[in-house]
Amino acid sequence: MSTKEHAFAGPSTPPIPVKGFDAAGIHCGVKPTGALDLALIASPTACRSAAVFTQNAFPAAPVLYDRDLLRMNPEGTHGVVINSGNANACTSAEGNANARRMAEAAEKSLGSTDNTAYVMSTGVIGVQLPIGVIEAGIPEVAAKLRPDGWEEAAEAIMTTDVFPKWASAQADISGKTVTVTGIGKGAGMIHPNMATMLGTLATDVSITQPLLQKALGTAVKRSFNRISIDGDTSTNDTVLVMANGAAGNVEIVEEGQDYDTFVDALTEASMEIAKLIVRNGEGVTKFVTIQVEGAVSDEEAHTVANSIAKSPLVKTAFFGHDANWGRILCAVGYSGATVDPTRAYLYIAPGQPQAGQAELQLVDAGTPTDYAEADASAIFAESEISVRVALGLGEGAATVWTCDLSYEYVSINAEYRT
User: Which tens digit of pLDDT belongs to each residue from 285-335?
Assistant: First the structure.
């Protein structure tokens, strides 16, 4: 599928360079098409790093490697090297060795010491990594590193993605401008449970490593863990953030205003990348925002929103412009959350949620309203749709971003390895 045929476009503004970081992307030979397939993001200044990983019981070799590296050296990272076209997942001892070779080649090209480079891989599962072409390509991509190389890096990590994805956010912290810029990939197997989607963020903030890890956990909870394309959790899901302190702000050593400001900036960039991943979903024609409020807790609200987001029947209704709201309430009912049908309300609207938005109410206290079917169908025909479920049981609330399920999704995944 070409970008022209896809329902949504990529980022509208260029990424903002991060002080002290360089990025690049090249073709090294993993992809037979000649498309970019190797990315490198690096800082000559040692970085504090934090990461969250897939909870899939078959973690890919890069995930295993990175988990160990984060435990061993959370304060001395110099970069991350990422290949696309091959996931290096379910590849046993040889795959683990190849992940290490990939990291060692990056460390050598960057002139850094051992255990200072992370690795990520994405693509087909169960095929050994062509480590030779990657090792040959790493010096080449290192030679191309530059402050404004983020777009090429984002392109180099694509698989079935239609467009590259990046986002930036800036904030004033102790009188210094702090920048967060990140890239992400993902179009299928997207239903992150981190607590084949990748996210790499770089920031020049000065912050302690434990607080960086806590900030990332908060940002991921509000962004990458609030999206769903097809309900599949990949073997390779990783979100990594590196902070080199080059902004010169007073180091953030405790929670407070400066910490909160940084968390907001990190969340802003993460959320934008997460939304771009949904818009770029395989065969996607709809971007759907699901809001759940009035649950007994935020966690139960998230459970309900996820249940709606990953329901194949709900997703195909979006694709078919069929305002079959019974499927939505059905997903609410089997979510496992506390529900009282007599207190349930359902509303839909075109576009993304905004203050004062006019909504069409479909259900009032568990009872259908006297709405016009043509009005509901017209909203479901929009490319962006908002769904709001009010449960009337408490203060719990959550938002999840999802999409429809189309013929094209089936076609892409039926032919993924052929």
Answer: 999 999 999 999 999 999 999 999 989 999 999 999 999 999 999 999 999
Single out the residue of 102, 123, 264 nearest to residue 185, CA to CA: 123
Residue 413, pLDDT score: 67
- What is the widest separation between alpha-carbon atoms in the chain? 69
Count of positions (residues) in the chain: 418
Instruction: Tell me what the pLDDT averaged over the chain comes to.
Output: 92
In degrees rounded to 5, what are phi and psi of residue 296?
-70, -20
Buried b (16+ CB within 10 A) or exposed e, 252-288: beeeeebbebbbbbbbbbbbbbbbbbbbbbbbbbbbb
Q: Whole-angstrom Cα distance, residue 314 to residue 359?
A: 19
Interval 84-114: pLDDT, tens: 999 999 999 999 999 999 999 999 999 999 9
Give the domain ranges of the chain: 22-279, 287-414
pTM assigned to the model: 0.89
Q: Measured between alpha carbons, how far is 246 from 15 in angstroms, rounded to an integer?
A: 18
* Confidence class for position 355, pLDDT limits 50, 70, 90: confident
CATH number, domain 22-279, options 3.60.70.12, 3.30.450.40, 3.30.450.20, 1.10.10.60: 3.60.70.12
Catalytic center residues: 196
Take residue 253 and report the two structure tokens written for it. Answer: 């050593």
Asked if 368 and 402 touch (Cβ cutoff 8 Å), the reply is no
> In 3D, which of 227, 205, 318 has the Cα closest to residue 272?
227
What is the Cα Rg of the chain in Å?
22
Residues 417, 314, 309, 303: is their CA dihedral positive or negative? negative
**What confidence tier does 2 reach under pLDDT thresholds 50, 70, 90?**
very low
E strands, 71-127, are 77-86, 117-124
Tokens of 266: 């990190």
In CATH terms, 287-414 corresponds, of 3.10.20.340, 3.40.30.10, 3.40.50.280, 3.40.50.300, to 3.10.20.340
Residue 194 is predicted with a pLDDT of: 44
Tell me how far apart the alpha carbons of residues 358 and 114 are, in angstroms, rounded to a whole number.
57
CA dihedral angle for residue 232, residue 218, residue 24, residue 416, rounded to 10 degrees:
0
Residue 233 backbone dihedrals phi, psi, to 5 degrees: -100, 120
How far apart are the C-alpha atoms of 387 and 389, rounded to whole Å? 7
The pLDDT value given to residue 188: 47
